[in-house]
Write a structure and sequence with these properties.
By secondary structure, this protein is mostly helical. The protein has one domain: Growth Hormone, Chain: A, CATH 1.20.1250. It has 9 helices and no strands.
Length: about 250
């Protein structure tokens, strides 16, 4: 582990605390829960996995499948604003010497809490969302746009927290079925990818169970907000991430 950290230091990669991957797995589970709420109780639309929204809007624009485009379009627009706002927020935080990773997570938790407040007492509804449903979705998409900015800058390999397609591909490809050695069968990275897929499933499963149990939108989102808040507070005492080699911040020469 020390050799890997030293190699990363020489290569200019961010230096990550040893428990950072575990926190990323927890955040992946939060994504599953949030997507269960946004897709099954507010939309149908995604708030983190925007590939689905792009396709929903495309299919709806073509008039195929009788798909509604309002919720996916609103979520997509809010996500873009979240990414832009998150990029500026974290750049300013880093310039001022503050822990941008913690600030990003706390801001995300705040936005999810806002969504929970908007949806407090609001019954889940699949299809034809009301103004309150759309407002809660906007807050969630802003939070997930911010999350994507935060996680991309943290750059923890194998755990993007908002999408598990690549993690699943690497996990299966390196398994006894795929036999692709480049992904490191049974290594720590391989196991981490498997955990991220499992976490996404667990989060979605929990959200669906809570939905079936009759929870309102606000109650569905409260666990997600608290979890992100706890992760941010847990990281608060750790060393700041080094981002000298982040995109657009390469050292000259």
């Amino acid at each position: 582990m020390d050799e890997n950290r030293e190699a990363g230091r020489r290569a200019g990669a961010p230096l990550l605390p040893p428990h950072m991957p575990a926190l990323m797995v927890v955040l992946t589970g939060v994504t599953g829960l949030v997507e269960a709420v946004s897709l099954l109780a507010l939309g149908p639309a995604f708030t983190a996995m925007q590939t689905g929204n792009v396709l929903f809007v495309a299919f709806g624009a073509a008039g195929a499948g009788r798909l509604e485009t309002l919720a996916p379009g609103v979520s997509l627009a809010a996500f873009v604003v979240g990414v832009v706002g998150g990029s500026h927020l974290e750049s300013v935080s880093e310039i001022r010497g503050r822990r941008w990773f913690v600030i990003g997570l706390l801001a995300e938790a705040g936005l999810i809490l806002i969504a929970a407040g908007i949806g407090w007492g609001l019954a889940p509804q699949y299809g034809s969302p009301t103004v309150r449903h759309l407002a809660a979705m906007v807050a969630l998409a802003l939070a997930m746009g911010l999350r994507n900015t935060t996680i991309m800058r943290a750059n923890v390999p194998g755990v993007p927290t908002t999408l598990v397609t690549r993690s699943m591909t690497a996990f299966i490809g390196a398994s006894a079925m795929g036999r692709e050695n480049i992904y490191g069968y049974r290594t720590a990275g391989w196991k981490l990818r498997g955990l991220s897929v499992l976490a996404m499933f667990a989060g979605g499963f929990l959200g669906a169970l809570m939905l079936r149990a009759g929870c309102t939108v606000g109650r569905l989102l409260l666990p997600a907000a608290v979890t992100v808040l706890v992760v941010g507070l847990l990281y608060r005492g750790q060393p700041a991430l080094h981002t000298d080699q982040a995109p657009g911040r390469e050292r000259p020469g």
